[in-house]
């Protein structure tokens, strides 16, 4: 009997360590799948029934199920419940034999975490089409100028520049980044605190590894940026989703029951809802972080593009404790493949972070770093930003205009004040995944808002990028999008 | 009483899961430090006494202590025993308060794994001096040609080339790597199996994450390449050292008691002893891997430089099960900061690896990949290799010549047939760390062999690189080195 097995497992786990109940249930369910007590494709009892059987609160059950879904052990099918993923137990069962030295001629399988990490969550392949979000229009990047700068630095290059980058990166680049952030983002820092990384994924992993241990809890926004969720999963953290509203993340007393070691945020332009975190909420969040003695990871992506409303200073700039790590990337402003980003580390931890970064990642690409430093110093970065801002502002207006016919009491837009995407909010009963599929058939890639949700079921909508689409494409495709939305909302 | 605490902890852990005894003791000791039962700087009882107190075999105790030393919890002081690291428990104690939501105004600390990952094991800073090992002479790199090729590709670059690299990298580069490995390394592969990474660290982490779960065992060579050990620690694996002899890794029946999920090897030129793994041993290892149903990670670094003896085909080429992952890097042949390497993935797992690599690392640098592809295709890579091989062969001869006066019955050279370093083996009573320090004072950076040892105490020697030193430097400094070695061995 499954529930007996689960109770026994939870008892064992509970006696051993102060694991919270939902984590005990998570482990017990995972073990049940690994042992084949829950077979591939098998339907799980409803969370209500499980809660009754195990004498647990429904929230506890839902939290465990969410975590297992996040990691790919379970899949939900709309209207029919939650099932064991077809892939998981087969491989996991293979795993169980591994301990014994018995000969087996079959090749070994992916590990359980390997299975989770290699399955895609944002179902669609990367198709770059007019409304794909998360991408900027790098066709406008000043290639000739960039090539000239790179050339210059390759010509001047002495052997040291071909070596690994020690001390956090090329010093002039770190100075240029520090100057930029001090002025434009009110970040308090010395160049010494800047570590040049290959981008946000590397910055996040470095923080997760150095600041948290395996099994520690990280609060992530719900809905969330999937890349960050994956980085945390890859580093063994336990994800705790915290709901976001129009002012950003909003932890409740219930969330406090799952205290975080890390809190990950996208305050400038919450991904994907687009909410800008209010100043009051920022102060509140810092107090919460202090109460839990947790670190804050501020991912300030998209902060470069603000179209209306006053700029809000970074969380890092409000922090008096030195508990905020601030990170950004050049992939969204220059071009994705540049693979250069930065992490700002509180002073007491700079040395530890530099050493671990060097040992774990062996950073390089010094000539590229040198070219970028000069690109920033000579003002090319600011003017590229200025031009981009102007061009994106036009696209944004065109998209808002095109979407107008679809707006109603039930359909509204959020997150359009900043960044390169907006969110079209739809009524809670809408099947936004089906809508996105219908649009894909018409050649339009937009993402359903529900695909980014971890635990919530109340959010439906479309995440629409306007960074990549040329103006004329927005004018051509926008009305198609609006019409399909109207049809969907009208039909019962 | 410590041993009581340890026994209670081990009982708890033993009842909960089929953890091996040494892992139970590891966890119990770790907990004792986290709880402050073993304070910073405190001396641990000898392994013999602990074994008696806990009624365990001495091997079990040694395995647990080794793992804790590897992770930086414990430090050994020569002749005086094993101590709790000064840093660890202070921070770890801070961690214990984190669970409660009690306000604390002090900034949080690094995590336990963060402490381990940010402390350096190869004590010396990266000083590039004549005999530093692990570095090639990239001053010979054909910069002008390289710049011309890069330029050409930047001129031709269309926007797609600025995007992230999907599908494992730039297709022509993957073809060029496949062609090279098929011909020169007898690796069986299609271009489709090649994944372009940023180098060996990234290749190792990808394998560790997708093929093993947190707490799984990886067999590593003893002595070992520290970069690999760190990658495994960072991905939560448990390191099990397996002793190396003149024919490479040699697992014993005792090692079989700690069955591996992964086996990491440097068969072409064992790092750091320089042993070349014999063909017989290669076949044996593949049988062992099959018996344990384990994956094999073959790091074929330094395979490009073979000076005497017949070339031995790669493990991957001997594998009939599809359980070998083969990896290499361009950092040693071109220049370190290029940050391009490759991982060859068995066919059934190619898709999973590509997806996870994309999701976790967002690879880029396509114009650089294009330049490298052309560099290889046009034969520049082969001729750079040829030139390098010739130049390194001369340096090698000069170093061997200079070391001759130091050789005796007790002092011999190993690992000089291949690669860019050799190993000068010294009598077991030699303090090779002190010798390396005396040499450093004379401006010579060599590494003590014992610094690479995980569990063994029997290996003493110097690891001497000749890849970086110009011929004249070797001729000038070699005799200084030889004389200091002679003095050391002669004095009691």
Task: Write up this protein.
The structure is a homodimer of 492-residue chains. The first copy, chain A, has 492 residues and is of the alpha/beta class. Chain A has three domains: 2-109, Orthogonal Bundle (Arc Repressor Mutant, subunit A); 143-380, Type I PLP-dependent aspartate aminotransferase-like (Major domain) (Aspartate Aminotransferase, domain 2, 3-Layer(aba) Sandwich), CATH 3.40.640.10; 383-490, Aspartate Aminotransferase, domain 1, CATH 3.90.1150.10. The first copy, chain A, has helices spanning 2-16, 21-34, 47-54, 58-70, 88-96, 112-118, 143-156, 171-185, 200-211, 226-234, 253-256, 279-292, 315-318, 350-361, 366-377, 380-403, 432-441, 471-490; strands at 74-77, 81-84, 194-197, 217-222, 238-245, 248-249, 262-265, 295-299, 324-329, 341-344, 412-414, 421-426, 447-448, 460-465. In chain A, the strands form three sheets. An eight-stranded mixed beta sheet of chain A has the order 3-10-9-8-7-4-5-6, sandwiched between helices. In chain A, strand 7, helix 12 and strand 8 form a beta-alpha-beta unit. In chain A, helix 2 (21-34) crosses helix 4 (58-70), helix 9 (200-211) packs parallel to helix 10 (226-234) and helix 16 packs parallel to helix 18 (471-490). The radius of gyration of chain A is 24 Å and the shape is globular. Residues 89-105 and 121-126 of chain A have low confidence and may be disordered.
């Amino acid at each position: 009997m499954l529930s007996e097995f689960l109770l026994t497992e939870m008892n064992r786990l509970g006696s051993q360590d102060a694991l919270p109940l939902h984590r005990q249930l998570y482990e017990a369910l995972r073990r049940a799948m690994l042992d084949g007590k829950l077979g591939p494709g098998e339907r799980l009892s409803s969370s209500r029934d499980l809660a009754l059987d195990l004498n647990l609160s429904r929230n506890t059950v839902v939290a465990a199920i969410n975590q297992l879904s996040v990691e790919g052990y379970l899949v939900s099918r709309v209207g029919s419940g939650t099932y064991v993923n077809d892939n998981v137990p087969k491989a996991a069962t293979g795993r169980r034999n591994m301990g014994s030295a018995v000969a087996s001629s079959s090749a070994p399988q992916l590990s359980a975490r390997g299975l989770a990490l290699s399955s895609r969550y944002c179902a669609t392949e990367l198709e770059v089409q007019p409304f794909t979000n998360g991408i900027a229009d790098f066709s406008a990047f000043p290639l000739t100028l960039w090539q000239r700068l790179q050339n210059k630095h390759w010509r001047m290059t002495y052997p040291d520049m071909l070596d690994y980058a020690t001390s956090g990166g090329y010093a002039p680049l770190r100075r240029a980044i520090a100057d930029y952030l001090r002025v434009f983002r009110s970040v308090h820092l010395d160049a010494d605190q800047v570590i040049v990384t290959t981008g946000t994924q590397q910055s996040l992993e470095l923080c997760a590894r150095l600041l948290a241990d395996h099994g520690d809890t990280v609060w992530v926004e719900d809905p969330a940026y999937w890349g960050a969720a994956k980085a945390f999963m890859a580093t063994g953290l336990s994800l705790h989703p915290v709901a976001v509203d129009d002012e950003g993340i909003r932890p409740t007393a219930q969330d406090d029951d799952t205290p975080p070691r890390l809190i990950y945020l996208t305050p400038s332009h919450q991904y994907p809802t687009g909410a800008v975190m209010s100043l009051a909420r920022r102060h509140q969040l810092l107090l919460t972080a202090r109460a839990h003695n947790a670190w804050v990871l501020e991912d300030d992506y998209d902060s470069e593009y603000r179209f209306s409303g006053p700029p809000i200073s970074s969380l890092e700039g409000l922090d008096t404790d030195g508990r905020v790590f601030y990170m950004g990337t050049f992939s969204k402003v220059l071009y994705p493949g540049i693979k250069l980003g930065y992490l700002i580390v509180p002073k007491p931890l700079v040395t530890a972070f530099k050493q671990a970064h060097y040992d774990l990642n062996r950073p390089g690409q010094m000539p590229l770093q040198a070219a970028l430093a000069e690109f920033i110093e000579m003002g090319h970065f600011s003017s590229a930003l200025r031009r981009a801002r102007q061009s994106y502002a036009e696209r944004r207006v065109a998209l808002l205009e095109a979407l107008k016919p679809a707006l109603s009491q039930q359909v509204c837009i959020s997150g359009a004040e900043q960044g390169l995407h907006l969110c079209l909010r739809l009524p809670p009963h809408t099947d936004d995944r089906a809508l996105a599929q219908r649009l894909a058939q018409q050649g339009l890639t937009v993402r359903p808002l529900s695909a980014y949700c971890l635990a919530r079921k109340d959010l439906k909508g479309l995440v629409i990028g306007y960074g990549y689409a040329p103006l004329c494409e927005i004018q051509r495709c926008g009305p198609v999008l609006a019409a399909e939305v109207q049809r969907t909302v009208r039909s019962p």
